[in-house]
Structure formats: structure tokens, C-alpha cells
Amino acid sequence: MLQLLRELGLLNRELKIRRVGGWLYIPLAGEPSPSQLEKLQRSIPSFELTTQVFEKRAKRPSGLGDLLADRLPPHLLASLPRSIDFVGEVAILEVPPELEAYRRLIGEAVMKLHPRVHTVLAKRGGVTGPYRLRRFEVIAGVGRTETVHREYGCTYHVDVAKVYFSPRLSYEHSRVASLVGEGETVVDMFAGVGPFSILIAKRRRHVQVYAIDINPNAIQYLTKNIQANHVEGKVIPIQGDARAVIRERLRGVADRVIMNLPERAIEYVDAACEAIKPQGGIIHYYEFSSGENPLEKASHRIVKQVERSGRKVEEVLSSRIVRESAPYTWQVAVDVRIR
Question: How many structural domains are present in the chain?
Fold first, then answer.
């Protein structure tokens, strides 16, 4: 009945259906036309048209502005966060200075809009230090920063207070994984909890990925994620500085190197070149680039740095803007083939 009313455009979605005794009263959007009545009678021989009083459906708020319209000064509504990062059941947002006094109200509104969220965090500063960590303040929920994030069929255990993880790189994880060929050896120099490494191992039957990170907490979660995704033996977790690990264990082994450390990747290009096989390979390089022509600038920098390392860029395969990280500053990806 409901499906037919929807198809005929007769169902009034703003009113609640009523049940009284053995009768079901369904609100209509208008009086049925003769042809609509004919279709109803063919499909549902026993029905009656009658007049009833219906309750309105509660309108689901479409955003923070709807929820907080009557709880914030009108001039502050435009400052509400427009983007929220969801890592599993943890929501992360940036509260502008003018809304600091209302941050807990905003956190509660986020939880109301997204019932699966158990903790809402406000950013307190940028990503800093060798472990690439950010300070947070709990503004709503239970305050647990550990969660399980799912992406492209992979499961990642992660604690956003102890390790670096960005859901905004989801497409990059998939893009790079799709480029890896069967039988390749990959060195993921700044692997974190494994979103590049594990997806590659899940998508390719014959592959070897060396996943390096200096943060022992990242390696702990990476090891757990390797088991959770059943890629034991295909992803090898290694804790330590990427340059030292490559020089000690991984010189000349890689068909492909991933360099997702945009703050400092340029400093490690020489190590990436050492990891690449003597006959050549591919580097996926990330950096923050600002001003005009950010892709050209990033491409020029990686080409020059490879040359300083004693190797040569045969071809810039692609360059793309990954995301805006600050006004007029972007995280960019440049893929190069070196020999």
C-alpha cells in the first residue's frame, strides 16, 4: 500500500500514519484523480477515503544551524563548523574563537545529528612533533579517543590522540593501491596505522609491503590491523626512523615508495631513492604547497631533490591537489618514475 502511494505521488510524508483499532489511516498529499483511484482499487480492493486529523512528523534537522538556530546569537550561526571529520565513532571539528563559549553546545548538537558518534573532539592546535600528533579537547560524549574506522572494506583500530590518521585521505589510499601491480615490493615510509599498506595487501594477491613508522603506538595499532584484515606476511611492520630503517634493511628493494609526510617528505627523498631498486621505480610524494601553481612547484621540488640524491626523474606521472590544508595552502600528491 505505502509503496503504491509513493509511486502515485499520493503519500504525505509530512504527517504521521495513524493506527486506530484494526484500521490504518494513511495521510494523502491530495485528493486522488480518477486514474489514481482506479489503480488503487485494482491493487487494494478494500480501502476507504475518509477525513482524519494527523500529527505532523518531527522534522529532522539538516545541520548544526537547524539544531542551534534558537540557542546561538543569530550573528554567530554563520561561524558554525562546516566540515567534520569522522574517524569511526569519533567526530573531530574545529571551533572558531568566536564560538569557544558554545563549544559544548556544538558538541552535543553533533551527537544529536550523528547518533553513532560516541565522542566529539575539538582541535587544539596543529599536527606537530615526530609522531604527527594533535591536541584535542573533549566537548561531548564519553571522551574515548580509541575507535574502529572502516574504509574500502578494511578495518582500522586507531586512537586519534596517540597516532596520526586522516579520513580525508581516503581517496588517496584507494588511488595508490589501485596503481600497485602484482608481485611488487612497496615501502610505505610513514605508514601510521596502515591505511595505504593494508589496502594494497588486501587488493593484491602477491605483494610485499614494508610499513615503517617512528611512533611505537602507530606500530602497535598497525600490527593489530594487519591481523584484523588478515594480511599477515604481506605487510611487515617496522618501528623506527624511515631513513635509518631503509639504510639498514631496505636498500634497493622497492618497486614503489609511499611518502605521506607532507610536512617533511622533501627531507627524506634521498632515503626513498635508496629504497628504490637499481633499475628504477615509482615514488608517491606528498607535500604542502602554497601560492600560485602549487602542483608545478611541488613537481619541481621533487625532481630537483631526486637529482641531488644521485638519481633522475624519468617522468612525472601525475600531480593532484589532495585537499586544502589552510588558506592558499594545499596538500598535493606528485607521482614520479625514477631511474
Answer: 3
In a domain, 120, yes or no: yes
Examine the domain organization and report whether 224 and 99 are in the same domain. no
Residue 23 shares a structural domain with residue 111: no
Q: How far out from the chain centre does Cα 16 lie? A: 36
**Which residues in the chain come in under a pLDDT of 70?**
1, 58-62
Provide the pLDDT for residue 112.
Answer: 94
* Residue 194, Ramachandran bin (φ over 0: left; ψ between -120 and 50: alpha; else beta): left
pLDDT on residue 308:
96
d(Cα 118, Cα 130) in Å, to the nearest integer? Answer: 29
CA nearest to 229, candidates 255, 193, 263, 261? 193
DSSP helix/strand/coil, 159: strand
Q: Are 246 and 271 in contact (CB under 8 A)?
A: yes
Beta carbons of 26 and 11 less than 8 angstroms apart: yes
Residue 293's identity, in one-letter code, is N
**Confidence (pTM):** 0.81
The cell numbers describing 97, all together, are 574563537
CATH number, domain containing residue 102: 3.30.300.110
**Alpha-carbon gap, residue 188 to 256, rounded angstroms:** 8
Q: Which residues, in sequence order, are bridge partners of residue 19?
A: 24
Domain CATH for 256: 3.40.50.150
Q: Look up the domain containing 251 and give its range.
A: 167-338
Q: Are residues 178 and 322 in the same domain?
A: yes
pLDDT number for residue 35: 80
Q: What is the distance between the terminal CA atoms of the chain, rounded to a whole angstrom?
A: 67
Of 85, 107, 111, 113, nearest to 95 by C-alpha is 107
Give me the pLDDT at residue 59, please.
62
Are 125 and 137 a contacting pair, CB within 8 Å? Answer: no
pLDDT on residue 61: 64
195 and 267 in a single domain? The answer is: yes
For 233, the grid coordinates are 606476511
Alpha-carbon span 38 to 291, nearest angstrom: 66
What does the pLDDT read at residue 58? 65
